[in-house]
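Bug report (template v2)

What were you trying to do?
Predict the complex of my protein with glyoxylic acid.

What happened?
Run completed; filing so the output is reviewed.

Input:
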Amino acid sequence: MVGSGKRAVERCNLLGVAPFSDSPDFLYRPYLGPAHLSALDQLSAWMRDAGMTTRIDPAGNLVGRFGDGPKSLIIASHIDSVHDAGRYDGPLGIMLGIECIEALRGEALPFAIEVYAFGDEEGSRFPAPMLTSRVVCGQIDATALDVADRAGGSLASALASAGLNKDAFLDARRDPAEFIGYLEAHIEQGPVLEAEGLALGVVTAIAAQKRYEVLVEGVAGHAGTNSMSLRKDALTAAAEMVLAIEAIARSGSGDLVATVGRMSVAPGAPNVVPGKVVFTIDVRAGAEGVRDLAAEAILNAIAEISARRRVAASHNLVHDLPASPCDAALMDLLSEAVAATGQTPRRIVSGAGHDAMVFAKVTSAAMLFIRCKDGVSHNPLESVTTQDAELALDAMVQFIKNIGKRGNV
Ligand code: GLV
Ligand code: MN
Ligand code: MN
């Protein structure tokens, strides 16, 4: 069989519904849930059809291997999704990796290729994203097993219910000396390529990100009897904090962004003044300095608002990734490969986080962006054309051949 970008898109569509989603109404595929495990079965079958051997590593990553050699080129992306997700954020990179193998069957390459389907890039189940690529790259320790999901279940128990042994979790780690490099293809998740009439982009760097969890504690009380002036309402305090976060991000440089994407209110009854609120903050910028100044301003604003409103506020830094530059030599090889498809190799910064950030710390990493409709992502309206997927596949295959020719693998 030959590789097909169209089939890659179709397979993402197939995985867009139950049993590959944990919801019958929208796509939600959190790490180690039933939909994730079903998707791994299906992906393993497709990998084996493409001539790969497969294994599930101790962190629940699916690894398909093709070819021989002491070193491997890693082609990877993630199979987990956000809540009410689109179909291509993550899976398309895996499907294109499998199609690369279909396209390269019969070629003698001086290295192996391993296609990884990572389990948890989004952090939509446990608080910190890129959990499973961080294990592979040795950037996590056993304390990770104690993180809890929103239902209070630990990672250790989630692993056990998926038939994995928590004591082996850290054994998913690989020796980076075995890698010759890392390639991730991903929809752009932004509007730049479409606006410029381009199908593909070569990522130069991925923005720095931090995530916090904030706890605001006021006093719960009767909604009818607590006069407005005496209340310690955790939700109205949190609401003011959210607007302060937005104002700080708006007043910063163009690539500074801050988001409160999740909030829970307790006790959560119409006739009770909210006593407790927990919310997340995600703050990102192309440069760590910009991100960190904004994060500091945000934490100061939270402290000021909580003091003035007489509620308690505390925060927890749950995730901190520096800006991650892609490898200059691989960017050149990828640009050549994109140019060979007849496309202009537009260089572009990624505001979205990717497992490539984790790999960039231990090996040479490259990322190929694919145009998506209206720049929409983390939304069921995500859309990519089969023509663009074909171009991406051609560029990836050419890139792999270019690496093979480079001779120093
Ligand atoms: C992943 O999609 C992220 O950027 O949060
Ligand atoms: Mn995503
Ligand atoms: Mn993604």
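What did the reviewer find?
The chain has a mean pLDDT of 96. The first strand starts at residue 53 and ends at 56.
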